[in-house]
Design a protein that fits this description.
Blueprint (H helix, E strand, L loop, with lengths): L1 E8 L3 H12 L6 E2 L3 E7 L2 E8 L2 E8 L4 H15 L11 E3 L1
Antiparallel strand pairs: 1-5, 1-6, 2-3, 3-4, 4-5
């Protein structure tokens, strides 16, 4: 299992967390509230989100070969929800 992290600075961290989780709740068994969420993409891949003030923290856990695709999928969805934010930065950092 590989982990990839990203801290996204935005005034709408909680809103985006909830939007992402609601979006994927139609397809996956998602759990979330205003501060944290989890999207289990499969038995061996999940996105864990947390909103703390103006930071949305993203933690992807997946097999190494799936990480790049999942990073792109999560980033693309977040950018769609945050289309009004020109300076939104999503810089994934591999752990381990």
């Amino acid at each position: 299992m590989t982990v990839s992290l990203a801290d996204v600075v935005t005034a709408h961290a909680s809103r985006y967390l909830q939007q992402l989780c609601k979006h994927w709740s139609h397809k996956f068994s998602v759990s979330f509230d205003e501060k944290q969420g989890k999207v289990p993409f499969s038995e061996d891949a999940a996105l864990v989100l947390s909103a703390n003030g103006d930071v949305l923290s993203l933690r992807l856990e997946a097999p190494v070969d799936r990480i790049p695709t999942l990073e792109e999928v999560v980033a693309d969805h977040l950018k769609r929800f945050a289309f009004r934010e020109d300076d939104l930065r999503i810089d994934w950092q591999p752990i381990g």
